[in-house]
UniProtKB/TrEMBL annotation:
The chain crosses the membrane at residues 29-51. CDD domains: GST_C_Metaxin. Belongs to the FAX family. Residues 87-179 form the Thioredoxin-like fold domain. One of its GO terms (cellular component) is cytoplasm. This is Uncharacterized protein. Residues 229-291 form the Metaxin glutathione S-transferase domain. InterPro entries: FAX/IsoI-like, Glutathione-S-Trfase_C_sf, Glutathione_S-Trfase, Metaxin_GST, Mito_Protein_Transport_Metaxin, Thioredoxin-like_fold, Thioredoxin-like_sf. It comes from Petrolisthes manimaculis. Keywords: Membrane, Transmembrane, Transmembrane helix.
Amino acid sequence: MLFRTDTVRRSVTMEGLGSLADLGVKLVAGYRSVVLGAGAVVAVWLARKIITTKKKQKLRREWDSVGQDVVLLHQFLRGKYCPNLSPFALKVETFLRLANIKYEVDSKSPYGPKGKCPWITINGEDVADSEFVLDNLTQRFNINLESHLSTQQVASLEAVRILADEHLFWCVITWRYWLDRCVIFLTTQDLGLFFNTFMPVFMVPGIKHRAKEQGIGIHSPEEIYQICKKDCATLAGVLGDNDFFGGEKPSRADCAVFGQLAQLMWNAPGTHYEALLTNVFPCLASYCLRMKDTEITRFNLTNTALL
């Protein structure tokens, strides 16, 4: 009996040791898999980091090659009827032309440090957001497009600029990308099959979310249209019989207003939004044409290349 009991104990002990050994082997194998997997992830990350860094260095060399005091304007590709689908890009480009600042356009990298379009590079410095861009250029080149205006007029025009950039803008993009699902807008661009197919997939939910956060998205399509109409009525009232919002000649505020109204004038063909300018407030349509045909800012609607 003692012999048999001892034999059983040794057998159990050996089985236990065998199980522990198997467990150890599995743990080591699992650990090696984790290490190898982590190593592969790190290797891929490093490779992408190196490639991205080299790409940025190459782009930086290209950007710096435009020359001293030459603005490199990063923006979207040209449209069919309007120089740019971004009102803020058109705003900056119009300012550059009004201020007679030498510039070149880059469409390879439209999104800047803040993830927004447009942005500029000048003398190795990157500046993002259209208002900060204009502030920077105004100070850098000692530009004053309001020299013919009083302090009160300049302040009033800043309110007009805010109406266009911060209010009318939301009406336009909410209709363009969400309510109309990019249908009309895509007919005004040469973006190719890929973007024509997938742009609505990403833009519709994205703009819907942003519009609801901003507040305009909680309204009905008709209410949004009425808000846009009211904005246009306000702009038409401020413009009055003047050629420009700056009076006899364009001011800095005109760059912003033109950038926004141009989206209704040329990037919403055949819609009731376009009709707000062409039928309801024709003075705004005439204003857009004057801005387009101003000697300095003139652009060709045939191919939207700035002359």
